[in-house]
Amino acid sequence: xxxxxxxxxxxxxxxxxxxxxxxxxxxxxxxxxxxxxxxxxxxxxxxxxxxxxxxxxxxxxxxxxxxxxxxxxxxxxxxxxxxxxxxxxxxxxxxxxxxxxxxxxxxxxxxxxxxxxxxxxxxxxxxxxxxxxxxxxxxxxxxxxxxxxxxxxxxxxxxxxxxxxxxxxxxxxxxxxxxxxxxxxxxxxxxxxxxxxxxxxxxxxxxxxxxxxxxxxxxxxxxxxxxxxxxxxxxxxxxxxxxxxxxxxxxxxxxxxxxxxxxxxxxxxxxx
Length: 272
Ligand code: SF4
Ligand code: SF4
Known about the structure:
Layout: H1 3-13, H2 19-26, H3 30-42, E1 46-49, E2 52-55, H4 73-76, E3 94-95, E4 99-100, H5 108-112, H6 128-131, E5 133-138, E6 141-146, H7 159-172, E7 180-185, E8 188-193, E9 196-199, E10 206-210, E11 216-220, H8 224-244, H9 262-268
Parallel strand pairs: 6-7
Antiparallel strand pairs: 1-2, 3-4, 5-6, 7-8, 8-9, 10-11
Helix pairs in contact: 1-2, 1-3
The chain binds iron/sulfur cluster (2 copies).
InterPro entries: UPF0153_domain
Protein name: YkgJ family cysteine cluster protein
């Protein structure tokens, strides 16, 4: 269940029975809500009838008995543009002892934000006030934001193995709504491919090929065309692997192969 579906589920469970009610409760666009409603209906988790929306035996995604308690990490670490709050700077509206001083008129982002720990998806060592790591789900990504007081915490255990596991799940679900696992730590951005860390992924995408069960060789694309060429090369390597059981992976991260690759790959791999 993605973040939009989860938000809609919560809104309906909380008593929103109309489109307007769900929009008010979630802050999502009508289109996103409509998509979420359709997906929920298909999964028989929600019905629409003359009385509006009704949840039907919604699964307990996770027992959500947790409370933020002493944590204010999202008011400190995340960016909230609506109140001019940059990353890693405590919000101007936060006051010790009081909490959010504009609680009743806090921005929509603050109203709807629920981290993965609070949702019950992570063990207690992930409590953001203790771990310095905030995880939250968006439509196509697991987003990991790290407190700049401990910028490498996400590389430590048990955090890294869990993130690598999520990343592999996201990669395997390609074609069935895969997702990316992204880490923001200070000014640095990373993408995880299992246990392989891709620093500063580009907007054009990253092509990758499995090396072991949880590590990958990757190439960062510099344009749409480049991504296309990289995918062609990977497809050729995979075909040769299937046919001959192995294939050399030539070149380095930055090379820009031109098709066709097959004769060169076969020669390099010792298959001709
Ligand atoms: S980071 Fe999570 S637990 Fe901490 S205050 Fe925000 S929502 Fe609550
Ligand atoms: S406006 Fe309130 S809830 Fe939002 S970041 Fe600032 S202190 Fe936190």
